[in-house]
Amino acid sequence: MTSPEGGVLRSGNFRRPVFDAAVAAAELEDLSPHDLRHTAASLPVASGANVKTVQRMLGHASAAMTLDVYSVYSVFDDDLGALADRMDAAHQASVTRSHGA
């Protein structure tokens, strides 16, 4: 991916106009791209995914590094259920809007 001018895509070129705008539109606060990386790593770790798979997904040199960094941020079962409920509600609302109902 490149910047609108065709150059190197830097964090500032993407973060302010695209990412931060999407965060605001979703009515979220204090969310960074790195927070999404932590979520993408923590959810599979917390749900018992093969840590070697998560390691490869993140590009870490070792599975130990993946566990050391992301098991600290693991999500508890109640949190996963609440997250799933919110994601399901958001999906249902999106489907309803796209079908004009």
From TrEMBL:
Q: Where is the Tyr recombinase domain?
A: 1-85
User: What sections of the sequence does the record tag as coiled-coil?
Assistant: none
A Pfam family (short name) is: Phage_integrase
Spell out the SUPFAM superfamilies in the cross-references.
DNA breaking-rejoining enzymes
Do you know which InterPro entries this protein is assigned to? DNA_brk_join_enz (IPR011010), Integrase-like_cat_sf (IPR013762), Integrase_catalytic (IPR002104)
Which keywords, in A-to-Z order, does the entry hold? DNA recombination
Q: What is this protein called?
A: Tyrosine-type recombinase/integrase
Q: What is the lineage of its organism?
A: Bacteria, Bacillati, Actinomycetota, Actinomycetes, Geodermatophilales
